[in-house]
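Re: beginner question about structure tokens

> Can someone show what the tokenized structure looks like for a real chain? I only ever see the sequence side.

Sure, here's an example I had lying around. Input first:
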Amino acid sequence: MIQNTVHNLTLEQIKFLNRGPTYVPPCQLHILTKSSFTLAQLVTKQMIPLRRHLTKLFTKYSVDLSRRMNFEKEIQLAFNESFLAQIPPMLEYRALYEKQIIQSIQYQLNKDHLILRRTADDKNTYYLGHLDEFQEKSNEYIENSNSFEFIAIIDENHTEEQQLKEVIQSLDVEFDKLYQRKLINKDYQMKFSI
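And the corresponding structure tokens:
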């Protein structure tokens, strides 16, 4: 963890964070089921990406419809059973304990106005710093970098919809100019116009 500020995190919280952003606490979905979600809602929500992936595979490799339906049914049953199985008490204790650590870290970060972000490299580390400093550095980078171009502010007065209309109008004007200069033909002008 890269620490750029004084903080009030405990040694235990820091040890947890040093596992890195790719660390996933065990049985976290089982622990979530004790919250406002019902197990059925949670399983359904978790099954959606798997279903999408299976649909793509079945479409790509044109699997027989009856085999496909049978396979999907079996996967759904296995998926449901994995959530219905009781987890060992020690694993449940660890999952609850780690959930508690995560909540205490979130509380401490909010209280001290700190930010915890994964670094952009492949080193599996976090950056810990003051929120205001981080936003200031981010804004400074955006202003001084050639990687970004400021176009407009989107707020209550200038909505995304208005901005999009302006961009579309400017594109249409540019396509008209290209057509008038005979750089594109009428078909392309009509095709590209929005």
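Each token stands for a local structural state, so reading them left to right follows the chain. The mean pLDDT is 82.
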